[in-house]
Fold each of these.
Amino acid sequence: MLNMTRITNFATTSRAIKCSLACGLVCAAGLASPALGALPIGQDGWSQLVPAEDTKFFFVSSSTGNDANSGRTPADPVRSLARAKQLMSDSSNDWMLLKRGDTWNESFGSWNFSGKSADEPVVISSYGDAEQRPTISPLNDLGIQTGFGREVNHVAIIGIRFIANRPEHLSKSGIRWLSSGEGLVIEDCYIEGFKDNIIVQGTGVFEDVSIRRSVIVDSYSTAGHSQGLFVKNVEGIVVEENIFDANGDNPDVPAAEGDGFNQNVYIQVGVTGVEFSGNITSNGPGAGVQIRSGGIARDNLIYQNSLGMRFGYTELDWPAQYATGTIEGNVIIGGDMIGANQGIGLWVERFKDTVVQNNVILNSGDGINNIGIILAGYGEAFILQSNVVHNWTNGTSGHSLKSTIRAGDGSAVMNNIWSMASSPHVVTVNHSENLQFLSNTSFVEHDRNDLFVVDGSPLRFNQWKDHSITVGEEMDPVTLPDAGRSLADYAHSLGYEDEQDFLDHARAMSRSSWDSALTGAAAARFIRQGYISDSFATGGAFGNTGE
């Protein structure tokens, strides 16, 4: 919710409205560095929108509006979205403001209005004092879309609630952005129950997308795949501090149960400049997140998805194409989900110039694969360091790491902890040439003859530590700072009953009720501290090891 919602008593002159909005948007918060989409982020973490001198405001209320009104003041709103669109102009800095607490059973339809510039976007947002965001819930229709192939630039959608109304389960999207152009900001939105809650797909290329602090949940489909967020043909996208929960699955609707092809977040091959940080992505029948051409994935809580994170993809045409970037500080917690890739924590494939560090991957559940980290395809000039894989086994199957890559120069797996007490396996390596294992610590409660496998040869630990691809490997009981720390523990520390109670409160957040403790970054930090000590995380000694 923007502070501009507190404008019910504004003077009716255009100048008075502009001054009040500007004061509400930037007061106290200050300005920090800009995000993609060219909107600066305030010290409170929210995008700061400031109307220009010539900005026109159009107020819309389904409860008190009349399409015969001017729509120019809160006291004289129009009723329908269609009428509000008629009043707006292309290539303008117009703002359409919907009354909080009101509901429209109509779609925005095709949105072809561009903003004036990156600094002066066209805006869809809200006004009023009600707690609930304005709700868009069209019958068997989508929420908003661009005309296919149109160039649409500099649009901000902030503080809007899109609720699917699909009694016939038609394949409709919440936000469907299929255009060329640049500059899309989606912030403080709640999007629920569409086939695809958000699609951003350039026709050609779309540049600079920011999706922040929104709740994107419960997508499903009875025909075809379903995603919480699908991105394709985009250059530059920030996905930050969102809640992605239970997308791709609806067990209450016949034929809508999810499978491994339904994702919470699906960022396709060719999308570049990806920053995925501080998000919660949970309870997905497929991947928590797929980032197929790489990017930055940092400080996310990835909870109880069939596949935690996939970084890179088989379709990358190596060596001309590869994923590159950083995977850092994420917490991946397994679960008993469905799908062909069930039980994989982190899957990294066809990658180069990549750092994977300070991640915690724990408690696989009763998965099919039970592999904490997979390295697949090809890899070159990468470091996998200072990660912890803990209890990624069901006792019958399990691996901390399985590598099938053909590694190039500069490929190292170092300073990791494989805490796999009851697992039958720890590390399996095929194509071992050019791959080095340095100073990793393993712990299991037994010494099978196939704890480790190199190029098809089963090895006990003593054989592993003396192998030509290893240096300084150890087998020790590992005393982690607070092993067993979980999302349930974090929920209890905040006064919530359990994990679901925590997720329910995260899903209920909006700008007016935002709590940074309910973000992926905060949850990941708490859980990570149970497994990674400060010295270990910075590449020093292994926390506390051995007894």
Amino acid sequence: MDSKTKFIFVTGGVLSSLGKGISAASIATLLKHSGLKIGILKLDPYINVDPGTMSPLEHGEVFVTKDGAETDLDLGHYERFIDSSLTKSNNFTTGQVYKTVIENERQGKYLGKTIQVVPHIVNEIKERIFLAGDKKDVLVVELGGTVGDIEGQPFLETIRQIKHELGKNRVMNIHVTLLPYIKAAGELKTKPTQHSVQELRRIGISPSMIILRSEQPVPSELKRKIAYSCDVDEDSVIEAVDAATIYSVPLNFMSQDILKPISKQLELNELKPNMDQWINLVNRIIMPSNEVKIAFVGKYLDLKESYKSLTEALIHAGANLDSRVNIKWVDSEKLEEDGSEKYLKDCDGILVAGGFGERGVEGKIEAIKYARENKIPFLGICLGMQLSIIEFGRNVLGLEDVNSVEFKSDAKNPMIYLIDEFIDNTGQKQIRTTKSPLGGTLRLGEYECETKEGSNLRAAYNEAIIFERHRHRYEANPKYRDELEKHGMIITGESNGLIEAVEIKDHPWFLGVQFHPEFTSRLQNPNPSILAFVKASMKNK
């Protein structure tokens, strides 16, 4: 462990979905813009090994890191805020911790000892936290869930022990809590915050800062009351009111001098973050000069969190183009019932997102056909690219029974198929079949892609070789390549013989990509292909 690393632990109280991840990312952003080397870590107390096989409706989006880890969507926020690529060491779950400890026990590494939560589970958590903080000035650690959850107790005990071991000048606890407004009484209520802090103290953790989530500004006398009752300094009671955009949160924190108490406790000297570019981009999000309407065709529309990285990437592109991107959510199953014209005729661009399973696929194909025939700028991502090939095979090549083996294993023309072997991003050979378990058989993480000169892809990135992240099992079948290109669908991106991108020759702007460009988009560095798509859509207004 680096003997100089400081640790900031962010916990949450009262209820979940308070915005701990945004709070943690905002603090990390301010510290990074102050010139410090920042690390960030998410601890997930659920028992799953990773969220890879969980339904998006259960857990929101699965965010993929460049080294192929399937992680919590908060890691996406971290990357977007601090403009850094994270790895599997920046997120771990209770499942991973117990799995490692049990494997160690089976191998005799504990020399026959009785395996217990303290010390064995706690020590494994501690080791992983210290690993994530190696060579960093400050590591910001967010604990998922809510104080009081059974699953979170070993993590809280670890946090308590780290504070005890390293001292208060190297460890700071920040507690995010709810300040509810009771409409009937016309009051903000502090009791839930007081009880949440009492619960933390009961297990030996005293927060040094409290962040109050509130729908409206918090009066100074209420902040004073919370400071007294929760035993924190008045300048360490920070309000986090609902913001017009999450990217305003670091600026809201900065206006309250949040870094002053952090710097004082962790002995970081005076911190002066340079947020000029950030302020400019946030102003363009809130008050842009232009606007554009994008049809977002998907099937997980009941929980838009499942497309979090993609919706944020559109915001990034819009901010950098000084344009508001108005998303028109289009349920692909409704396109199957009612056709495309009704839902897509008033849109400047059409985006078909990824997904797993057969539901809603024919509606997505309808949307692609509409974009192709009506010359509307189109971006297809992952399954969206695969379906653009299927649509072209059916309606331009005129082939019979065109499908993906994901949906029809005995299709006469399987334009999307399952390759038995591929080399993963670590250089290892992977074997997969239709009966392989879902967890661990995807092509995951960052792969290089060669771009074709003169293509939309090359123009967007201005690079011959690009690196983007993947999360899929099925691939475009190269057997149909010559036929596709002969009729105007050009392969414009390749990775070791695998088809990574397709475009249509006689179309203003049409791009399907096998990778997920949204995973590498940041506010200050938008993804080039998504930026180019929004730009093309603006020209189509």
